[in-house]
Amino acid sequence: MTSPARPRRIVARRSPIHGNGVFAVSAIAKGEEIIEYKGKLLTHAEADEHYGDGGETGHTFLFTLNEQYIIDANQQGNSARWINHSCAPNCRAVIEESASGDPRKDKVMIEAIRRIKPGEELTYDYGIVLEVPHTARLKKLWRCLCGSPHCTGTLLKPKS
Question: What is the edge-to-edge ordering of all strands in the sheet holding 62-64?
C-alpha cells in the first residue's frame, strides 16, 4: 500500500531578488525542515578543478558539506539550489552529520528560522567566505540584491 502524496509545500519560479527563487505554497512552521540541498558529491580538489576557486563568477551552486566534500547542485541538483541569499533570511542551512560518521553521507537541510507565509520567498544567508582579498570588483561580482533594510551589499562574509 502506498502512502498518500504530500501536498506540495514549495515551488520554484522567477524571483524579484535574483533569477529563480523558491516560494512557500503553504505556511511553513518555524523549525520545520523544508528541503534537502542535493547534488553530486565532489571533493574540494574536484570542485577546484571544475570551477576554480569560485571567486570570479559571483554565482555558484556549490555548497561546502564538510572538510572532505562539496555538493555540486549544477549536477543532480534539486530546487533547493534556487533558494536565494538574504541579509534578513527566513531559513538557514543545517549540516546534518551522518550517524555512521561517513562524511559522504552528511547532508544539508534547509530549515525555517521563523514562520513562513504562503507566497513568501525562502531565503538563507549563504555565508560565503573567500580566501582572496575582497576587492571592490569582487564585492560587485558578489553583490547582494535582497532588498533588506539591513542589507550588507555583498554576499561575502569577512574572513576569520
Answer: 40-43, 69-72, 62-64
d(C-alpha 45, C-alpha 17), whole Å: 31
Average pLDDT over residues 133-145: 88
Do strands 107-112 and 33-37 pair parallel, antiparallel, or not at all (unpaired)? Answer: antiparallel
Tens digits of per-residue pLDDT, 101-136?
999 999 999 999 999 999 999 999 998 888 888 888
In a domain, 55, yes or no: yes
State the pLDDT at residue 4: 60
What domain range is 26 assigned to?
A: 10-126
Task: Give the predicted TM-score (pTM) of the model.
Answer: 0.89
Residue 31: CATH number of its domain: 2.170.270.10
Q: Are 110 and 82 in contact (CB under 8 A)?
A: no
The DSSP output letter for 25 is: S
